[in-house]
Design a protein that fits this description.
Helix content is about 30%, strand content about 20%. It contains four helices and nine strands; from the N terminus they run ααββββββββαβα. The strands form two sheets. A seven-stranded mixed sheet has the order 1-4-8-9-7-6-5, with helices on one face. A two-stranded antiparallel ribbon has the order 2-3.
Length: about 220
Amino acid sequence: MPNSLPEPAAEMHEEQPVTRRPRRPGALVVTVLGLGLALFLLWEMRADVAYWIGSPPRVELGGEGAYHLERAADGALARIAGRPGSSATRFSRFGTRYEIVAVPGTNILVRRTLAGSQPTRAGSKVPPPAQSAFVAEGRLAKDTAIPAYGEAFRLLVERGDAQPRDGHLYLLLDGERPRAGWRVPAAVVGLGLLVALNGMSLFRSFRRGIARRRPAPDGGRDSLG
């Protein structure tokens, strides 16, 4: 019987372990910075969030000739009636134009919506506000709680419109009422998502780092008895 040809031996392919590319250090730095920035912004918004979800006390600050400035309190829902001073500062925020005016004879400034006005060109003089009487109601904030408005405070004090009381000014944000508007909840949700995403990414990076530091399992074969 003729010898059959031997079958070719099956080639043994040793599987190579799949190694993941280590994460770049720069990506980890960006993640940490993003997480830190989001947490910082959430901390800075704590007063806005507390006012939006809370039930702040209602404060009546009075009107011309009968102001009750001793009632001013940071974070209160305040109401004041009066006429604006002779000057104003104007700016744009989230696509809305605002102006800040002082209530003469008080340490109260009012930020109100400026309808139908074009942005002032750089270097040009800001026209005076309309001298009609107004009533403003909204969140009352102490100057130390809103440093972003420091330049407006300084300008109105230098022009003689704003008069600090006990070294402080208050800004009444006309129209800002608890649980009204979308800006605060939208900002909190957006920042919360950034915190969650960056936190998960950082957690995965730490897990990969711990896994790489673990000792490799014994790859030797058991000896035959």
